[in-house]
Amino acid sequence: MTVTVALPPTHKACILAHADAALPEECCGLLIGHRETDGIIHITDVIESDNLSEGDKSKTFEIDPALLLRIQRESRDTPERIVGYYHSHPDGSARPSATDRAGVWEEGQVWLIVGIDKSNRTQTCAAFLTITKDGEFDFVPVFIEAP
Ligand SMILES: [Zn+2]
To answer: Which residues surround ligand 1, an ion (CB under 5 A)?
Structure first.
């Protein structure tokens, strides 16, 4: 069964704008939402993070851990949760890189990736769900729909 992520166009536009503004570096941020009984993961908010990677920020990202903690705390009394993360590939495809694969720390999270063609700044968007397979984290593609 393919998991579906419902991403409102306004939130998608925010992510794409962040990816463009962050060039030539990777952008990153949080996907806030909830899973409904139909299994669809509804994104209800996106929150930008600074890219705190200490490596080459055009190839790596690190979400601000203080932001992560704050949002986890704030969402405790609401039905909304951090359902995943987004980041961009300033000169690459919207596919998880080897670095992304090594960087997964939790299963059941949505990873939304914006791939950018450097020559013309064309953006493509794809989403994946983190799973555990043979004791290792892996990604499976998920379907993005506009609710
Ligand atoms: Zn990546």
So the answer is: 97, 100
